[in-house]
């Protein structure tokens, strides 16, 4: 290490009071050896209406799938995020909102957030929504999204937030899967100076079969244009004003559902993962506080959208449970230009910034001077999530965004895990760029080989987690068998993450990416099966195979191999149509980066598509195709290589 690098690492260490190596090891050991005692202490982070006596019930193994944490505890999530802060933090900003337009800002104190949540909750009640009812949110990044989530939590309703970039088709599928009675939306969402017609998408979704469960659509008006009101629609702002701000929080069991969040898997339709009130909230709050070394005067900005799990745990629930100031950003990092991120940091004196490697790479591509319009002196810690962070992006974050002063917390976790599972956690001096390093307290990672045997010491394998933690999803909404099958059948007795990982000689972990058929495009999870099923629904398509390939900015791009029906002709126009069907079924985030017309697809003799080979061709790694002798028609591979699309 050069002298200046030493000096920088030293400075970073001083700025943070990280858990020392020894403290980490001791506390970690305690969390693993005495989980009951450990979690009994930690659960005191929350305000319970009835303190749990039972801590953990259920171990992976025989009765693995019915996990319960703090099962006799009673609490309310919104009371933990709001009411308990009023005395000490009533006038503290709970949400600082920065609009897409840099001139638009709003500050909402804890007292105001409490009042507005009460009004929103009373409005939901007036519409007949109560305990256990499901409510779908399809919202822009505006404070009302957080308010609606907290209002559901207040009355015991279960929210399902659908990312605003999903299409009406995708929204309809998610509404009908959990049979929502109410949908909450806005007329428009503003992103990068453009408008997304959310309400129009909802209207289209509700014309699709299976959505007649919806009785009301609450619309939070945001735009200037007149709204095309339907008879089921209600102006949420107008109705809220008529409501009392007092709404007693519902007493909920720790295991009662708090929310459902749909995510993609390697097969089938998106899965509605269910998270609980007690274990989830505790885990989100605890990881948020410890991994970001949260302090009372921090101004914390997580740039994720509330439509993803990161937005749930680290824009809304974790920070608010901790009484922190959380920044909500409506726009995109590139608007009006790539200097925006730094300007937002300066404007609000942000101290902790949590973002994705994709966003960092997009800024990095524009050169170091993109940061010239800001100083970023307030920053003291940067976190990343969603994808592996490559060393260049790590160094750009550390040297340029963080002025060489900020530790980088590369956090590995998933929709299913509820909160961070691994992060560097200890002294920044020892951090290795690109490694997520250490398990969080109570988390027991392990590596498995292809035969299902444990890999000890240094090695590469399938990452599993041994034993439960409070934040884990408990089921797939309406399909518990699928939950068991997906997560607990691959390596019985463990939770299967779907990720591969490397453990180095020091015992530190490096996530190497998905080992199943899940893509990670700009940190967004997508199932290849979902995209393929959209493609094969087109009458000209006989077969489709979709794989990821390395992409400089997005991490992964989408590469589709299409075999046409006899008589169908490939053309630019057809390529556009195929992109359109994917956009219609899933959304613009699933844009195909490359389409290759394939005379056939490489298959095993049993008819299984050899994706390994398709991935290699898409990545232009044709020298390492491996064994293709088991293919039913090896000539297909030659043809595919010849016609490979340059991207
Ligand atoms: C939180 C979130 C989960 C998948 C996960 C993995 C990838 C997330 C990562 C990471 C390497 C990190 N992933 N964080 N890979 N390093 N720090 O992103 O949830 O949308 O469910 O995605 O994202 O592949 O399995 P989700």
Automatic annotation (TrEMBL):
KW Heme (keyword) present: no
E.C. number(s) listed in UniProt: 6.2.1.1
Enzyme class: ligase
Signal peptide from the UniProt entry: none
Cross-referenced PANTHER family: ACETYL-COENZYME A SYNTHETASE, ACETYL-COENZYME A SYNTHETASE 1
Family, as annotated: Belongs to the ATP-dependent AMP-binding enzyme family.
Protein name: Acetate--CoA ligase
Species the sequence originates in: Kushneria indalinina DSM 14324
Phylogenetic placement of the source organism: Bacteria, Pseudomonadati, Pseudomonadota, Gammaproteobacteria, Oceanospirillales
